[in-house]
Amino acid sequence: MKQEPDTYSSFFWLLARLFAVLWLVIAGAPFVFQIMTTFKSQGEFITNGLFTLPESINFKNYINVMQGGFYQYFLNSFFVLAVSLVLLLFLSAFAAYPLSRMKFKLNKPIFSVIVAAMSIPIHITLIPVFLMTIRFNLYDKVYALIGPNVAFNLPVSIFILTSFMQGISKEMEEAAEIDGCGKFSTFFRIMLPLSKPGLATLAIYNGVVIWNEFVFAMVLTQSQDARTLPLAIWEYQGQYSINTPMIMALLVLTGLPIILLYIFSQDKLVNGMMAGAIKG
Fold first, then answer.
1. Is the dihedral of CA 227, 230, 236, 238 positive or negative?
2. Residues with Cβ < 8 Å from 50, sequence gap 6 or more?
């Protein structure tokens, strides 16, 4: 006998889709407004109003931003992001492996200290980090931003990756040991490849945080040669405080790499979160 479709279930699915479309409109409206504004001149923006369509597609604001030192800010941000992520992922993996797979007396105390470090506010460390940076002659250098980015994102990364590695089947590790693999070989040949979803999740999560980092970049750098994109937005806002279309063009160029990263990596992010949630 053919079952009739559940009316209530269909109604709730329809309601869920309507809410999803409504949320898309609410969340996407600021981006649409932002992109529309970038194609306007300052006079057009003031005269025609905020929410009118641009009279023509004009890339002058983007050109002016590119000619205003955007490349230097972008290269600095990319360098800090790349080096920080490589160090962060490797250090997290090296720390998470023994904490998740090895039994020793200090396992739980060390893990407890790492979890407690997640609650330390970064603002209370600004003065010590600033003094340390000056002492090591790193002030106003792009290298000064790598250490704080790694240090303050390391606890949460170890915490997430430790939980992820605990969910990997122990039989594979035991089989590798039977075949003669030591701890280092097991880590590099078994654990690290199987942890790629978790590492990809951490890379996306920490990448967004590092790309948008403002406080340490503001305190530890001074010149344009060492500053990153969040400070470019801040400086452009001061320099072109009344030129809203130009500031919007800078915001679009700054957010575009992260948006593209999320678009092409969202499947890895979801798979990593799901894999970390399923044990065994």
1. negative
2. 33, 37
Spatial distance between the Cα atoms of 40 and 58, rounded to a whole number of angstroms? 7
- C-alpha span between 196 and 161 (Å, rounded): 10
Q: Over the stretch 8-34, which tens digit does the pLDDT of each residue have?
A: 677 788 888 899 899 888 888 888 888
**What is the Cα–Cα distance from 196 to 89, expressed in whole angstroms?**
10
pLDDT in tens, 62-93: 888 888 788 889 999 999 999 999 999 999 99
Across the range 195-207, mean pLDDT stands at: 87
Backbone angles phi and psi of 53, in degrees to 5: -70, 150
**From the centroid of its chain, how far is CA 78?**
12
Domains of the chain plus CATH, in order, are 68-277 (1.10.3720.10)
pTM score, two decimals?
A: 0.81
Closest CA to 211 of 233, 237, 238, 183: 233
Contacts of 60 (CB under 8 A, 6+ apart): 41
Contact indicator for 40, 58 with CB cutoff of 8 Å? yes
